[in-house]
Amino acid sequence: MSKEDIRKEIEELSARINHLNHQYYQKDISEVSDYEFDMLLEKLLKLEAEHPDLKLAHSPTTRVGGTVTKNFPTVKHKHPMLSLGNTYSKEELAEFHKRVQKGLDGAPFQYFCELKFDGVALSVTYTNGVLSQAVTRGDGSKGDDITNNAKTIKTLPLKLQGSAFPQEFEARGEVFLSKTAFTQLNKKRSDAGEETYANARNTASGTLKMQDSSEVASRKLDMFLYSMTTDQSALNTHSASIDLLIELGFNVSPTFKKCSSLEEVFAYIDEWEEKRNTLPLETDGIVIKVDSFAQQEQLGFTAKSPRWAIAYKYKAESASTSLNDITYQVGRTGAITPVAELEPVFLAGTTVKRASLHNANEIARLDIRVGDTVFVEKGGEIIPKVTAINLEKRSDTSTPVKFITQCPECGSELVRHEGEAVHYCPNYGGCPPQIKGRVEHFIFRNAMDIDSLGGRTIDQLFQQDLLKTPADLYYLTYDDVFQLEGFKELSTKNLLQGIENSKQQPFENVLFALGIRFVGRTVAEKLANHFGNIDKLASAGFEELIEVPEIGERIAESLVQYFGEPQNQEEIGRLREAGLNFQIDEDKGTLESEVLEGKSFVISGVFTEFSRDELKEKIKRNGGKVVSSISAKLDYLLAGENMGPAKLAKAEKLGINMISEQDFLSMLNQ
Ligand code: IVH
Q1: Active site includes 116?
Q2: Contact of 151 with 158, CB cutoff 8 Å
Q3: Stretch 20-43: mean pLDDT, rounded?
Q4: Domains 432-504 and 600-668 are alike in CATH topology
Q5: Which of 116, 220, 618, 620 is catalytic?
């Protein structure tokens, strides 16, 4: 192949992988199997390794942040990670039961029933009571060694309780993002103007394979264990091994039950059909296992799955209803989201009236038409989705949907940037939901925290032309507020006081409140600490911005664009005039002590007692200084779990004093 051919191949592979990643994470669509995906990635990695000069700056092999990368060692499983046979009815389950009876020659036996958790299978090995390796399922016979990422799972013990453990054993379970953690993650992303993830399972899977363990830690993965294998124990039953896992401190879902008959298994199935909706994660069925290890061995395996266990899948929670209309929502950033307005239908515990249709591509893919009978499903997602159309019921007169060309709120001509699936309303300064959305963002708790102001009041102020940008809040008079419907003397004073108090918010909150695309709360804090004030930040160019640790090209571009707009400069000017903080408070709060006076620290890794932010705060409050990079001048490296190997090597080379969280706390107590 000529160099030019290779360049082309690298470009094509990168584009294809980027596309597949986007489909998988943002749309919940798997166009290829995991195996095919890994093959594509492997091919790209190989080409890039052979021709480093041709590697693209945005190569999907280097990206982190919810995207699968593939720089983990491959490990062969000691025992293959098999899958389970599925059944979809009690009749099929009764047949499984008969096969088990026959296989055991009519001997008595017991079942152990568990829920089937919809997460990502992980195998963890403990040696002398310490977590020594964590490997993904992969293709069943070999997977990725993601030990450092697994160590960030708070409920997975790094060291076991007691001493009743075999010297070496392997436990398996499902890693998941709880429904709450998934909602929080998406909220954080949408606050930062980033696309939200479509499905908790896929996000958990992608998170496990991220290269940056501190990002993994921030996502709060959890894990339920459901099996234990060892050559060195006297355990005779699966139930005894589950008891031992609990005793050793593992997180085992307390939903299991030992059953002595098929009837009891049926009762378990019925019991959990509805109740499973109250669990912290999605479940799609139950798993029925023969309890005795000797009997498991007697029954053996087929090529793919054990003969001693089976899954019973609940019917997908799907309902059929009609599509009354398609409406369009305009977000804070101007992004247009088409929404299916459905005839209300009861599904998995709630009434569903609307479902997101994501964008024009999705509408075209489904060929959905107003008046269609559609199927909606609730899977691992919070928002229900339209999965298919019942074409038999389609009316002859229906016509394909024409995506709107003008903003439903302000009438502006919509734009769609090349290569993007989403339409935008470009009327930044005049489109009502964009204006109101920016004010709503501005007053968030971790932004300006004005809780005396709500959506209804924002609406009233906007209607009366009193609120066009967040800065207008600081120029409201008593009379402006008092004359609003529902406002009396006390409520007026309250609102104005809330606005006044917000001027005390620190610079990082103000910076986050501005609503710059991709600048979430954490990024705002990093920028604030790095640049110290808004003028330095606003005048920093792209190159200078990407020098800042953890600031990528996307954020840098967005910042340059934001500060380049005269209307944003004007807004900042008015906010500054109103008295908001546009520089960091050098001596935040009073010092607790001066024990760390003149000492500099780099914080790296994941900690058990305090978060990184809390540690930073403690250093500052005791007279110390936190810096972002390791140099010969550095006094201490405060090292947690999973510190990056490069940092570690550099610190060792420079002979930096490395201290643990405990060492640090004792320093404070001197
Ligand atoms: S036991 C031989 N128990 O389902 C396989 N698996 O189709 C033994 N799963 O890869 C697995 N919840 O990821 C077992 N309570 C549970 C489970 C469970 C979910 C997953 C697991 C496995 C897949 C099998």
Answers
A1: yes
A2: yes
A3: 75
A4: no
A5: 116
